[in-house]
Amino acid sequence: GTGLGLAIAKALIEGQGGHISVQSEPGKGSSFAFALKYKKTAEEMDVNLKTAIQQPDNTVGKVWVIDDDTFILEFCTRVFNMHKIPHRCFSSPAEMLAAGWDDDVKYIFIDMRMPGMNGTELCSLMRKKAPTDTCIYALTAQVMQDEVAQITAYGFNGLLMKPFSGQIGRASCRE
Length: 175
Prior knowledge:
The chain is of the alpha/beta class. Helices cover 30% and strands 26% of the residues. It is built from six helices and eight strands. The chain has helices spanning 4-15, 49-52, 70-82, 93-98, 119-129, 148-153; strands at 19-25, 29-35, 62-66, 87-90, 105-111, 135-140, 158-161, 166-170. The strands form two sheets. It has a six-stranded mixed beta sheet with strand order 4-3-5-6-7-8, with helices on both faces. It has a two-stranded antiparallel sheet with strand order 1-2. Strand 3 (62-66), helix 3 and strand 4 form a beta-alpha-beta unit. The chain starts with a helix and ends in a 5-residue tail after the last strand.
């Protein structure tokens, strides 16, 4: 609905040196294609997937995520489940604020643009509710480089860019 899926696909493809194209015909729909180049290896690999995939030791703590976009919440749930990271998703600031505090929460990811309350307001309220060692990250699809310092000044420990292609800015958690 918002076009975020295409933005994620484009970022993943271009991040690997590929390209994406589209053909569209009014009334019939659109078709997307992508191309990636890979080098063929000369040696065959014998990979045991169970030993190749390292499971985290689950000492990370619990993650809370808030976003009004259900696609983002579903994406986060899949990633956290795949890595066996305990988490809880919220679709509104009121829902997160009404939740009883969970001492296992070590990270909170807050969408910057939500109806009813923006991310900076929610971050301020969560700083009053959460212990000082809880890391709070801003989630956003749009930010200018000069806005990063301003975001950390609002109380965020850092910034995660949607579609999660990397971090623009980072600060250590408060002690």
